[in-house]
């Protein structure tokens, strides 16, 4: 059974995890529109949100397959 992971972004609201990219990097999208994508990096300082384009997000997901 797959678990779902959500984050609350201060500006864009609830984000849904699309996939795990690396040990501390994950790809998230906005929950409702699913048009904005973010690579979220977990560091000792907290979370870092880096926006990526839809085509870049697609490439990141395809590289995980």
List the helices and strands and how they pair.
Elements: E1 6-9, E2 13-22, E3 25-30, E4 37-43, E5 46-52, H1 54-64
Antiparallel strand pairs: 1-2, 2-3, 3-4, 4-5
Short description:
The chain is of the alpha+beta class. The protein has one helix at residues 54-64; strands at residues 6-9, 13-22, 25-30, 37-43, 46-52. The chain is 17% helix and 52% strand.
Number of domains: 1
Overall pLDDT confidence = 91
Largest sheet strand order: 1-2-3-4-5
Strand content: over 45%
Q: Can you tell me the CATH topology?
A: SH3 type barrels
Distance between the termini: 19 Å
The main pleated sheet reads as: 5 strands, antiparallel
Helical fraction: 10-25%
In total, the number of strands is: 5
Overall body shape: globular
Rg result: 11 Å
């Amino acid at each position: 059974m797959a678990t779902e992971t959500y984050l609350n972004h201060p500006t864009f609201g609830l984000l849904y995890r699309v996939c795990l990219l690396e040990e501390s990097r994950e790809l998230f999208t906005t929950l409702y529109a699913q048009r904005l994508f973010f690579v979220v990096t977990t560091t000792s300082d907290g979370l870092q949100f880096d926006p990526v384009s839809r085509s870049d997000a697609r490439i990141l997901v395809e590289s995980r397959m």
